Amino acid sequence: MTFDRIIRGATVVTGDDARICDIGIAQGRIAALGLALDDTGAEVIEAAGLIALPGGIDSHVHISQPSGPGVVMADDFDSATRAAAFGGNTTVMPFCLPREGETLREAVASYVKLAEGNCHIDAAIHLIVKSTDPVTLGQDLPALYATGFTSFKVFMTYADMALSDRQILEVLKVAKELGAAVMVHAENEDAIEYLRDEAERKGETDPKMHARTRPVPVEREATHRALSLAQIAGVPITIVHVSNGEALDEIRRARLRGQVVHAETCPQYLTLTADDLDRAGFEGAKYVCSPPPRDTAAQADCWAGIELGDFDLYSSDHCPFRFADPEGKDAPGARASFRNIPNGIPGVETRLPILFSEGVVKGRISLPHFARITATNHARLYGLAPRKGMIAVGADADIVLWDPTITRTITQSELHHGADYTPWEGFAVTGWPVATFLRGEPLIRDGVLLAEGRGGVIDCGQPDLRALP
Ligand code: URP
Ligand code: ZN
Ligand code: ZN
Ligand code: ZN
């Protein structure tokens, strides 16, 4: 057997195992795993002391998503996939959101055009279902499913996107017929609107009120309701960006009833708190995202959920808005009320280093566990396996080499995203991705992007909706 490239001597994380071996790469795929592979004619990458992990799959990122009037998302496909690559990822999954008056199929066509030629890693696209008219449900979703768009996101909050319970049931019915995956953003819109109006009436308009008007019961109740709707419809669902133990307990109870539920959490719920939204000088706006970060007890509950394997997915929910943009987080409207602060924080580049350092280095999770919740499970659930998400013979050679000894302090000036800040400024981490291979070709080496535009839009196959191991 001859190889184009051999990664020699790394600790290779495969399935449930981590062992020192060589990775033989041919024609963009992993062709062999073994000791002392024959390197005749192959480029050899010496990787002793490094850890080889499947390239990260960040299945929850927002890129060039239409936002409020005048509000511009800080990342397009170029900057988002560049930042993702530097953060050890080889696939991202952003969301296609139709504009006013646009059908879902039209929206997908123009979103794919935005992506094509501008991706430095691969991108697979989720569909946001914000209307349930007969064309969307009866024609667009089935047609799109058949062409590789097999996962849908529904929202229970945000005035312009929230679906009623009935509408969610209608989407779940279509998803069941198709076999699509459904992600739910679970927060109670009516309760949030009531609490916001109350806060504004009292003149309480600071960024910290964003968290206070989206308290834990808002998320816990909506999580319970989403799970009940899924039980009624008889379909698995994924609860995304779970921020606290009470919402996670609802998921555990649903699983005990026999429901298949997938659960996702994000770095912000493991490392930030609502106190960050109360930082001086309007800096708190930099931490406004939904659901909001909670308190240290909720953080501990989310860590327990990771350690116990209750979270299948660890994603960034990268949703970048600049602080200093005309309609950004520090705009006059945002200063007037927390209600107008664009929702979301950047995190696609820092997701993996944060979990590697806080999770693996601190001994909370094993390397195989890290690989599952950062890559393998994403690939399985969203129909990208067995091509993506695993270091296994036959899979795409999407591989990231980590140096577990590097210590770094996260700082905006060294990141590649389009945002003008990072919520993790000054956060110290141990371990950093030092080399990335995309479909077998070197993509990043020692802090340099070696090839531009080598990624592309990839189709999702049939989701694997079974409970993940
Ligand atoms: O604040 C957030 N997370 N904005 C992004 C949209 C979403 O709900 O995922
Ligand atoms: Zn969401
Ligand atoms: Zn999101
Ligand atoms: Zn699971």
Automatic annotation (TrEMBL):
The keyword tRNA processing does not apply. It comes from Paenirhodobacter huangdaonensis. This is Dihydropyrimidinase. Its cofactor is Zn(2+). CDD domains: D-HYD (cd01314). The gene is hydA. GO terms for cellular component: cytosol. Its EC number is 3.5.2.2. GO terms for molecular function: dihydropyrimidinase activity; metal ion binding. Belongs to the metallo-dependent hydrolases superfamily. Hydantoinase/dihydropyrimidinase family. Keywords: Hydrolase, Metal-binding. The modification N6-carboxylysine is found at K153. Carbamylation allows a single lysine to coordinate two divalent metal cations. It is an enzyme of class 3 (hydrolase). Residues 51-441 form the Amidohydrolase-related domain. InterPro entries: Amidohydro-rel (IPR006680), Hydantoinase/dihydroPyrase (IPR011778), Metal-dep_hydrolase_composite (IPR011059), Metal_Hydrolase (IPR032466), Metallo-dep_Hydrolases_sf (IPR050378).
